[in-house]
Design a protein that fits this description.
Strand order of the largest sheet of chain A: 2-1-5-3-4
CATH class of chain B: Alpha Beta
Oligomer: heterodimer
CATH architecture of chain B: Alpha-Beta Barrel
Largest sheet of chain B: 3 strands, parallel
Largest sheet of chain A: 5 strands, mixed
Order of helices and strands of chain B: EEEHEHEHEEEHEHEHEHEHH
CATH architecture of chain A: Roll
Order of helices and strands of chain A: EEHEEE
CATH superfamily of chain A: Beta-grasp domain
Radius of gyration of chain B: 20 Å
Helix content of chain A: 10-25%
CATH superfamily of chain B: Aldolase class I
Structural class of chain A: mainly beta
Radius of gyration of chain A: 12 Å
Chain lengths: ~70, ~260
Amino acid sequence: MHLTINGKDADLAATTIAELLAEQGIDPKTRFLAVAVNGAVVRRAEWQAAALAAGDNVEIVRPFQGG
Amino acid sequence: MTDPLVIAGTTFSSRLIAGTARYPNQQVMLDALAASGAELVTASIRRISLEGYSGSLIDLLGDKYRILPNTAGCVTARDAILTAELAREALDTNWVKLELIGDRELLYPDVEQLVHAADELVRKGFVVLPYCNEDPVSCQKLADVGCAAVMPLGSLIGSGMGIANPTAIELICSRSPVPVVLDAGIGTASDAAQAMELGCDAVMIDTAIAKSHDPVRMAAAMRAAVEGGRLARLAGRIPKQRFAEPSSPQLGLVGS
């Protein structure tokens, strides 16, 4: 399925956010992680169930240094 | 705690909010934050690297400090609101330092979008602390839409130029219904002290500490300056006058 992940095009087998994270090698238990799909935050509790659709725009973020 | 800073019902004993960026390394940052006495520290929200994904420095800070996420770099209200919502999810906080940049070179706030985004975030339940212009009208508009504090700039972000318009900052402080946090432009300890003397409730400092020659020592200097400036503000300075006024007694001079 074709997705945009953090601004980059990707073709992945994942159909949920949990699968997407696994496919990207990201432990879903990682603290301070947040995900948005098409401009809306998807809560951590919904990652297992949240279905992805072709063309979805996914943002995966964490806190970093800042002023 | 005799003189706490209170923002949105939360009490802080330190009036210094510290940034976490631009330090030479993580250990210096941790030591400097400890020396600053700050309880509230800022962080940005960024896309994780999909290649070589690794831990975040927030892992080191999250349990020791209250994290204030920012929306640094956002140029549209939409992006800033999404960033705030992601920050709330990532950090489990509804506090946000709202930055909406209107000029990528000057990093000057876009007041029109800032007020709009602040209004929407307040309605969504956020505690909004906007980085804003040093302009009493902008600050009033932000307070009117429900911001928990205002963060007027002293001078351009990272410039170290100090407080370019102290009269405006003093005016804002004298009229603001919410706490005033001087943000951006502080270069050295005297700037931080001046902000507090002008009536600011707190100061936000990043670059002036992180990029100094000795960040840990500068953090201690900033802490002392903020405390000194606050005490001077509470004590009440003497009025300025154009003539000398002898401090020693006029009577009993030797030889007179």
